[in-house]
Amino acid sequence: MDVDFTQIQLSHLAADKARDERVRQFAQRMLDYHGHSYDRLARIAEQDGIKRVQETGPIARTMADGLGQLSAPLFDWQYISAQVIYHYAAFYRYERESIHGRNKQLRNVAAQAFRDVKEHHDAALAIVRDWSWDAS
Fold first, then answer.
1. How far apart are CA 7 and CA 83, in angstroms?
2. What structural domains and CATH numbers belong to the chain?
3. What is the DSSP string of the chain?
4. How far is the CA of 26 from the CAs of 10, 18, 21, 136, in angstroms?
5. pLDDT digit string, tens, across residues 39-92
6. Burial of 127 (0-12, 13-18, 19+ CB in 10 A)
7. pTM
8. How many Å apart are CA 131 and CA 136, to the nearest integer?
């Protein structure tokens, strides 16, 4: 849930502040995907008596605070670069859970999520790869 909650928080910020259309579209895609994923994981967690994640961790909070101080094009660049890193790390977390998780329902969710998150990583990386400071 913390991956999803972090993505929701950062992507709300990007939806408001990003100037590059590709970055705004990516942020909306993250809001849609991670909002749905957060709700699904929260329902599973609540069945086991685990409360919903309600705040981001210190690293994500620091990132959000820093992003909040920026304006485009630097905001766009920092947000999408962070997305490459976050999704790279999340890919391995989901992969590990899909293999070693104790809860069968969570293993199944993680197996799909790790494929989705890899796709998100590749989409963010494509934006970084094609970034043009002249066009920003």
1. 9
2. 2-49+57-129 (1.20.1260.10)
3. -HHHHHHHHHHHHHHHH--SHHHHHHHHHHHHHHHHHHHHHHHHHHHTTPPPP-S--HHHHHHHHHHHT--TTHHHHHHHHHHHHHHHHHHHHHHHHHHH-S-HHHHHHHHHHHHHHHHHHHHHHHHHHT--TTT-
4. 11, 10, 8, 16
5. 998 998 898 898 998 888 898 899 899 999 999 999 999 999 999 999 999 888
6. buried
7. 0.89
8. 8
